[in-house]
Amino acid sequence: MGRMAESGGVAVSAAAVQASSFESFYFELLRGEVQGSEQWLAAQLRRTESLADDLPASMDQLAGWMKARAADVARQYADYLAARRRGAPRRMFGNRAHALYFLQQVTPTKRVDGAWLHGVLRHWDDPRYHGLIRIYLEELGDGDPACNHVVIYRRLLTELGCHEALPLADERYLQGAVQLALGYNTERFLPEVLGYNLGYEQLPLHLLISSHELQELGIDPHYFRLHVTIDNASTGHANKALEAVRQFWPAQGGEVFYKRLARGYRLNDLGAGSMDIAAGFDLESELLAALERKRAFARHLHSDRCRFDGRTVNEWLSAPGSFPAFLHVLQQQGWILRDRDPAESRFWQLVEGPQAAMFGVFSPYEKQLLHDWIAADWTGSKRRPTPLAFAEAALPVLAGDLPMERLIEQMAGDRHATPAGLAATRHYVHRTGLKGGHCPCN
């Protein structure tokens, strides 16, 4: 366990006490260190009390609300497509580097896709939970690595060369921590879990737009399209989420139950949403940040043969914050030609290609940042990286009499995406007779 503090006689992790340390708490939960997660989750729920939501006044109106919401999203997406046909620019991603930035920024949440439902697995013998269990099993692909959502997302990042973690703002870990905490505290917060699930499984406009724009940029949108299909309000997760609310609706105390459900629903609004994250991208700022991360390793590695504005490369790299001026000098001296094919720039030729002097120095994401910054408004064809082959790991065989609790432990957080977790999921499906289905490879 991490450092502990006493709060009201209950041991709470230091990360849980420090509300701003979402990253630390997120990784504690991933490791299964859950002490203090109930108190932390209660604190996040209190934060939602000041937030507004679009839920109807009563549970009886949820079906109509969901239908109207789906129709509104469909209308907005039709308007978006019409605008694009008339020449409007992309709404989420200005260029390929922008899209890669977004995919990495949302990784902490995608890494635990579905985790808020992990706690329902213990109730396989209660029919009221079966719809929720099936949602979770679909997120896990029933143990098939080709269908497991976390595996699919990891594969996408690997194919794009974005599998090495970037330093992220602490808030990027908030939603992932919320999902993990809900999954570990289902018994205490079932109405809130139902509300969160109801909100998360509604098809959002940004998912449709991001799928469309990723395709345009030569990035496989399969992960996002998969969620477009399974989150539908007719037979998909959105419908299952509503049915779960009906299954657990109490004979008495419905008003209190619905208030708690609404608090869980509003948990979805904590932190920055997908549109806000995409809007936070600034190409030059990201490029400069990437170069600055390289500076500490590169400041003594260049020869003194080349000088720019009277200074060697090592001298340019000797002090923090030197890259804006250095890039300006490279442009003045013709090493970088903005608004043109990057292949025409001498500096890009040092970076790209197996014979390039700096081959392997920059990651694919860093190269994309540099490429798109040089290209700027140039609209010629842009090279796309060749996707990497994905080899599926063989699944280990688990003992048939392994305790159910042990199987469920292996299906938590992102552990279900490991070979052992995938095998545990398959054994769980076999033993309970429950199955998510809806595998994209079926």
What does this protein look like?
The chain has helices at about 15, 20-30, 35-45, 60-85, 95-105, 105-110, 130-140, 150-160, 175-185, 190-200, 205-215, 220-230, 235-250, 255-265, 275-280, 285-300, 315, 325-330, 345-350, 365-375, 405-410, 420-430; strands spanning about 5, 10-15, 305-310, 310. It has about 450 residues and is mainly α. The chain folds into 3 domains: about 5-45, no CATH class; about 50-280 and about 405-430, Heme Oxygenase, Chain A; about 285-375, no CATH class. The strands form 2 sheets. The protein has a two-stranded antiparallel ribbon. Strands 3-4 form a two-stranded antiparallel ribbon.
Supply the number of helical segments.
22
User: In total, how many beta strands?
Assistant: 4
CATH architecture of the largest domain: Up-down Bundle
Distance between the termini: 42 Å
Share in helix: 40-55%
Low-confidence stretches: 1-19, 381-391
Mean pLDDT across all residues, rounded? Answer: 87
Number of discrete domains? 3
**Rg:** 24 Å
CATH topology of the largest domain: Heme Oxygenase, Chain A
The H/E string reads: EEHHHHHHHHHHHHHHHHEEHHHHHH
Strand share of the residues?
A: under 5%
Which of globular, elongated, flat, extended, rod-shaped describes the shape?
A: elongated
Q: Which structural class do the helices and strands define? A: mainly alpha
Strand order within the widest beta sheet = 1-2
**Biggest beta-sheet profile:** 2 strands, antiparallel
Which CATH class of the largest domain is shown? Mainly Alpha
